[in-house]
Amino acid sequence: MAFRSAVITFPGSNCDRDLAVALEKVSGTPALRVWHGDAELPERLDFIGVPGGFSYGDYLRCGAIASRSPIMRAVIEAAERGVPVLGVCNGFQVLTESGLLPGALMRNAQLTFTCRTAPLRVENSQSLFTGGYEQGQEIMLPVAHHDGNYFADEDTLDRIEGEGRVAFRYLDTCNGSRRDIAGILNHAGNVLGMMPHPERAIESDHGGSDGRALFESAVKGLVAA
Amino acid sequence: MKVRIHVSLKPGVLDPQGRAVHHALEGLGFSGVEDVRVGRLIELEVADSTSEAELEDMCRKLLANTVIENFRIETMETA
User: Fold this and answer.
1) Is A24 considered catalytic here?
2) Which of A66, A137, A176, B8 is the 20 to 30 A CA-CA neighbour of A103?
């Protein structure tokens, strides 16, 4: 069966095409494109991508308005049924605002927009999204954000660390994130939110390919399942 | 009626913007400022029949992110 993925587009999304291209390059099947105002997702999805950008102009709080849009109700339902959901950058903010992932993303501690290639460590190589990496592998992925400073209270941080839900950690101080957290999984392991952009690193001719394994893991994991 | 929603960061949550404003105040020569926290004020014009419970619901579901923010509802007297 062909891999069926969908990428959501909100007004102000700007990484939706990159995410769709990455999914198509890795899976061989074009990703379906879904508009935020749609109330329903296509049927039988294997993967949902919530892209980066500045949905709704970052009004109120980053991701706040998008997380209450009609399509997000469907995404939350699908996530609860176990459909894999990846949120990148603004997509991570949307997933925390929607309650699918714990914590919140605040203004970078240094207050400036940070745009560079960041070194990361893979902290959990057992998940659906990270099975293609080695445990502890160091990778380079682009980051480009103003509000990537991950915050959660100490109890929540201890819990997600204890459950192995920190997927990626920054190797240097990137944005003030608590415990240098760059990406986290939900309890069931089918939802990943991360500030770095794996979809911008799938071809060595275009700034590196360290993000490719993430999509390959997801596609392989689902085809095998 | 007019309602003001005051949204502020919870105690213990670091406020990078507040810190920058603090530095800027010091740069302007204002001494004795011990701390600065930046919040948000949202003004609503709502039907007089709107209940306190509905306003709280609005705050919890959208206007504040209760992971990091507290809110206070201030109902203004209608003239």
Assistant:
1) no
2) A137
